[in-house]
Amino acid sequence: MERSEEDLSLGSSEEYRDEEKSIFTEDMNIDNPHEYSKHENLQTYDPKRQPHSFFYLGISGQIDSGEFYDRDGIAIKYDIVKGNRWKLVKGEETGISQHGFRNQGASKRIVWNFPFEVIYSSTNVKDWPQIVLYGSGKDFRGREVIEFYGSVHVPTSPGRHTRYVRMFQPVTSSIFGKFLGWIKGNPASYKDAPNLIAKGEGREVTRVQSGGLLKITFQITQRNLEKYGYKTTSNDD
Amino acid sequence: MATPQLHLIGEIKSAKNFESNRLFCKWEFKYGKHLTVIDGNTEGETFEEEKPDKETAFYFDHPFDIHFKVESMRGWPKVVVEVWEVADDGKYFIAGYGTGTIPCSPGSHNIEIKCWRPKDQTWYGYLRESLLGVRSELATKEMLLSSMERNLFESETTGSITVDIGIIAKDFELYGIKLS
Amino acid sequence: MAETLGLAFVKKEIQLQNNLIGSGFAEPPPSGSKRVSYTGEIVSAIGFDQPKLSITYKVHVPELWEFDDYNSYETLGIIKDLDEVNKRDSITQFSYANIIDYNHQRVYESSFCFPFDLQFLQDTKEESSERPYLLFQVNSLDSWSRHRIEGYGSLQFPSEEGYHEFKVQCWKPRGTFQNELHSFFLGGSVRVLELEDIIQSYKLNEKGEREMIPYDSLPQTEDSGEIVIKLNCLSHSYDLKKENRKQYDIEKKKQDEEIVRRINAERIKLIKQYRKKIKKEILEEEELYTEDYSRSGDYTDSRDYRDSYLPDSYDQSYDDDDRYYNKESHKSYD
Fold first, then answer.
1. Is residue A41 one of the residues assigned to a domain?
2. Is residue B55 scored above 80 in pLDDT?
3. Which of A182, B139, C22, C292 has the maximal Cβ count within 10 Å?
């Protein structure tokens, strides 16, 4: 943050005249500076103008490995679902890994080591991001079919975390009929499907059977959250 | 300066050491009179999951994201859990009740809730249980959260439920509350 | 998205959010005292000899601490009944145990999930290291309905705020051979009469002085199981509130000054640019205006400027044309 030491005075007349006020935008005509700092956080990031800006959440990690019972040749696709106040600063929200196969021996473990890295900025902590995962394999015709899904919240405290996510297969699809319809080739409803899984509504009427377990490692970094008054960890006291 | 706010973000993660192979869990967050929910569901039901015998645990992964407004130190939320098992013919029986206190220090926590279920002491109850598979339930759930004497009650221990929870607290220090 | 909508919309949203949340909170206790709240539960008992157990607990309050029962704002917790709060002693249900693996051994575990909710008022003017205790007595009931005592334990409440998990080790008094025989066949055990005796380390003799209890008068004990307790400790004090608010105000003031400084810098920059632009326009206009009247374009424009600039030894022959055209207002160089 540079502080310019230029001459900030106006010269002969200290005040600006009335007719010159028209050049100011509405932003600069403020009486309460603290209110200004709050609203401008909702605009684009400008470090020279804001003493404290959005808060940032950096999510990086990798999808390490997984165990599916008898299945082989699974590719994992991830999708990050968040509230609408969160804005993507850097990184990609979706990604598809390679097809992974088991070792020839007896171990059931499939290893992908598929990395992801995203940075988000926001002003409000609600609707914390979640990662929704899909596991897909090739059917006998060679088409990609999504069979498993799972979701987990991104951890809230900074540092390194490991999470185990269960991958499910729906047994009877009632509310998931909609979801399956998307898989069969209905790209218009793509936007709804991740939210459906991540929200957890409508789960009481479905029966599932477990398909496997995935291990994900997260590394979380945060910036500016204390300036907003949020405390996410008790480690620095 | 706004009232302190509390965010609970996490999942109802898993159920371990239950005998049955088909379970689902009804969860609810109970909180005191001076807390108000601004956003989020405080109760729900997870999937009904069927697991093969070789597995040791059920994983629900049921997400929740709740935003509270806290006006007093009293009445910190607790999570109340009811685990139901499904018999082969589709009837529902209780597999456990449990309560867990939500931690007050901000950060990521993993809570394990040990569950118990009521046990019939009489011979009649024992016969009913072993021959018909009918179990007794609690008629009123008030006793789960109350510290009134329970010395005339008998229960048996069943499995446990784990909850992965992240706590985010805002502005508690400005009102003189120390959380950690 | 909000950024494409105007400032008015955003201000309204912020106002709505603030109205929804408000800024009220319970009053802290008066300065010099601190309100401490312990909420938690007795989770389970591990490693005892009998499977069917129940736990009796009692709260012991030292000097400088007292129960905060009748606080008009905060008395109601989760259960809307005044009896639930600050229960001095209670007893859990009888719970039949499960067998689990613990520390590479197979032991009994009985779960209770018995909540407790205690609120104290601590006097912080004097320094003291005494804290309240939670005293336990573990009872067992077997299939022949014989009652026995399986252990005693105590937990000192923590001084640090936050979420804690404790495992309270318990001991069981060991009686004589006859006592043990009686206990095995008919039930009953050596008992400690007052639960508070288990944390007493001194007693008052006839003169009223403190004296250590001689170890011979205490019963022999043997190791018993563990009780798992999870609790939250929260505290509320007026002094902390003042201190934190002071810091917050200082930072806020710094931030406001910084915002004002930056806005003024931007404004001044804009004004300077604006004024330069205006001046340039005026100069260009005057250039256009004076181009008709001057022969060479090297002269500057305004008459005032020329008059003040010209030295005394100026040659008048250059101004012939001007004098001709502007007789009235022309200054004479004579």
1. no
2. no
3. A182
